[in-house]
Design goal:
The chain has one domain. The protein is built from 4 helices and 5 strands. It has a 5-stranded antiparallel β-sheet. The protein is globular, with a radius of gyration of 14 Å.
């Protein structure tokens, strides 16, 4: 199982998980209760219910680099281009835009 904390403007917005059933995104309760909570994407509106899908949510997949930058990431970290969650964890801590993704290590869970 792979997990990541999703940040919106440096605030913890939720957790993204990949397991044998697919992908789950769950907004953080404190984030939802804050006065200035906003959705990280139109396709992932604010909700207490978790979002589930068999494939990586298009919003997160869109954060992964493409072209020559993806080639560099694949070669540097030896990550298969089909392993979208590993690419997201390796490349998207400080990506362009308001959202960042940081891996949760097994010892942190």
């Amino acid at each position: 199982m792979k997990q990541a904390v999703v940040f919106l403007r440096d605030r913890k917005a939720g957790v993204l998980t990949e397991d044998e059933n697919g992908y789950t995104f769950q907004y953080d309760r404190d984030f939802l209760l804050s006065d200035d909570a906003e959705a990280i994407s139109l396709t992932l509106p604010l909700s207490e219910k978790p979002f589930h899908d068999k494939v990586l949510f298009p919003f997160f997949d869109g954060l992964i680099p493409e072209g020559w930058l993806l080639d560099i990431a694949e070669k540097s970290w030896k990550i298969d281009a089909r392993d979208r969650m590993s690419l997201l964890l390796a490349c998207c801590k400080d990506c362009i835009g308001a959202v960042g993704v940081e891996p949760i290590r097994n010892e942190e869970v």
